[in-house]
Amino acid sequence: MHDQSVSVGRYYDRAGALFLRFGRGRESGAIHRPVWAPGVSHLQDAVSFVNRQLLMCMREVRAVDVLDLGCGVGGTIAYLRARQKARYTGITLSRTQAEEAGRRLHPADGPDDASSKIIQGNFAVLDTHEVQAGSYDLVYAVESMVHLASVDTFFASAARYGRPDSTLIVIDDFQKRFPLEGSARYRRFQTYTWGWRVPSVVSYDELVSAARRHGYRLEEFRDWTVYVSAHGTRDYLLRVFVPFLKLGSRYSEWCRSMVGGDALKRLLLEEVVGYGFFRFSLTR
Ligand SMILES: C[S@@+](CC[C@H](N)C(=O)[O-])C[C@H]1O[C@@H](n2cnc3c(N)ncnc32)[C@H](O)[C@@H]1O
Questions:
Q1: Distance (Å, rounded) from C-alpha 252 to C-alpha 239?
Q2: Mean pLDDT across the stretch 210-221?
Q3: Would you say the CB of residue 171 lies under 6 angstroms from ligand 1?
Q4: Is 54 exposed, middle or buried (0-12, 13-18, 19+ CB in 10 A)?
Q5: Which terminus in the chain has less CB density within 10 A, N or C?
Q6: How far is the CA of 182 from the centre of ligand 1 (A)?
Q7: pTM of whole model > 0.85?
Q8: What's the 145 CA to ligand 1 centre distance in angstroms?
Q9: Could you tell me if the CB of 131 is within 6 A of ligand 1?
Q10: Bridge partners (DSSP) listed for residue 175
Q11: Residue nearest atom 12 of ligand 1, based on CA coordinates
């Protein structure tokens, strides 16, 4: 079997440790982008920005059953759990991520905490009593939706897990402009979706329409593109190494991801790709 979920799971199994080591979320376990919104002046604040927004939503809707679709190593759950009492469930495709999340949330020398659990599996086809259909009042997905083979599959899954009237938050990339086929930007977009294994970077309209088809109404959208597009020294350094990383990408998921990440940085600046916060409510 060689479908999208198998390759994404393998991608995080193989490169996940390097994402944490060389990424910005080594301490916090965040495998998402720092967001330099107004008022954010430190890297740790930028890295936890996404988590803070989720915490605010969680408090607003008084969520007690929370589901993290694509939980990585459990960084967001650890952040929320430390601040808000609830029952948390996280799902990741990657076995190594699930193990790391288990260590992070349930350290051998820590108190026994039954408020969170991590499941390794594909949330689009999961068949386990541990994640009950229709039982979550907040479902969120941070930078995981784009990994699915289609956004319809993503929203169908989210809708299956959410209670009627529940909230769904999606924080992810979407396509803002459509470069001409064959142009340099078009090739960059291909490099990014290939490098990051993200076939579902769709337009705002496509995303919202797919959500609607599965019973979701858009309540709020925030465009954070300019907050993630700034270039730092590491981005310029990365660009220098891209030709070598391209050679390595045949053998290494991490090299492939670095090549994709370089393309994405430019696409964000050019506003071909955007980064957004989408808040939906389930109307059935
Ligand atoms: C970029 S990481 C984001 C991790 C986490 N949300 C965070 O912000 O730190 C993407 C995550 O989505 C997960 N993922 C993607 N597709 C999935 C699927 N179909 N089922 C379960 N997890 C999935 C991957 O395993 C990975 O943990």
A1: 17
A2: 98
A3: no
A4: buried
A5: N
A6: 31
A7: yes
A8: 8
A9: no
A10: 203, 273
A11: 70
Kindly list the structural domains of the chain, giving each domain's residue range(s) and its CATH number in brackets, ordered by start.
4-282 (3.40.50.150)
**What separation in Å is there between the alpha carbon of 143 and the centre of ligand 1?**
7
- The pLDDT of residue 1 is above 50: no
| Distance (Å) from CA 148 to ligand 1 centroid | 10
Strand arrangement, sheet containing 273-282: 116-120, 87-92, 65-69, 136-142, 162-175, 273-282, 216-223
Residues in the chain: 284
| Mean pLDDT for the stretch of residues 210-217 | 98
pLDDT exceeds cutoff 50 at 248: yes
pLDDT at residue 114 in the model: 79
Ligand 1 lined by 228 (C-beta under 6 Å): no
Tokens found for residue 131: 């994640």
Among candidates 280, 238, 264, which has minimal Cα distance to 146?
A: 264
Strands 273-282 and 216-223: antiparallel
Q: Distance between CA 182 and CA 180 in Å, rounded?
A: 6
Q: Is 8 in the pocket of ligand 1 (CB under 6 A)?
A: yes
